[in-house]
Design goal:
It is a single chain. The protein folds into 2 domains: 52 residues, Homeodomain-like (Arc Repressor Mutant, subunit A, Orthogonal Bundle); 130 residues, Tetracycline Repressor, domain 2 (Orthogonal Bundle), CATH 1.10.357. The chain contains 9 helices and no strands. It is elongated.
Length: 197
């Protein structure tokens, strides 16, 4: 065991160091190139060190996806508390900051975003709980702005709209906008599609 590994593990931050290494590799190399051995090498620990916290690659991917949903939830929470509309007529205005935050998260973390929404590991209980918590932030923001019978449908619509915009931007289907241009695009699409629904 290397000195770095003993020090990291002794201080209880080996799991976090491995997760940070995996996040860095994920956005550069993609999920297919990610391995426990590569993560260990990147973190500067022995090849066996990751197995102390992750039984296999799928367990690591599930932890990454859960981490992503937790971060996304935090960004949505912060954006949801921003100034926005407070009546049903202002729904588009109220949802725009959250939509921008979600799309920006996808653009900031493309590999993680694709993992969160497109890998079999997302079916695990840890990931489902983190995803549900992120969606609950959207539900809470919608609740005072929409009639109860429309809240679930509206949440799905907002989620689908944001997810679609994220993928279109990530895949270069909408050009290569600057962050400001992407924000403006998200705003205009959300307000046009949702408006005061």
């Amino acid at each position: 065991m290397s000195t770095l590994e003993r020090r990291s593990y002794h201080h209880g931050d080996l799991r976090d160091a491995l997760l940070r290494s995996a996040l860095g590799l994920l956005d550069v190399d993609g999920v297919d190139a990610l391995s426990l051995r590569a993560v260990a090498r990147h973190a500067g620990v022995s090849a066996n060190a990751p197995y102390r916290h992750y039984r296999d690659k799928d367990a690591l991917l599930a932890a990454l996806a859960a981490h992503g949903f937790a971060e996304l939830g935090e960004r949505l929470e912060a954006a949801g508390s921003a100034e926005g509309g407070s009546t049903p007529a202002d729904l588009g205005q109220a949802m725009a900051p959250m939509a921008r935050a979600a799309v920006r998260y996808a653009l900031d973390h493309p590999g993680l975003f694709r993992l969160m929404f497109g890998n079999p590991c997302v079916g695990g209980p840890e990931v489902i709980a983190a995803s549900d918590a992120a969606q609950a932030v959207v539900t809470a923001r919608i609740a005072p702005l929409a009639a109860p019978e429309h809240r679930d449908t509206l949440k799905i619509g907002v989620w689908a709209l944001v997810h679609g915009l994220s993928l279109l931007l990530l895949d270069g289907r909408l050009g290569d906008p600057t962050p400001g241009q992407a924000d403006a695009l998200v705003d205009s699409v959300v307000r046009a599609m949702i408006g005061g629904a």
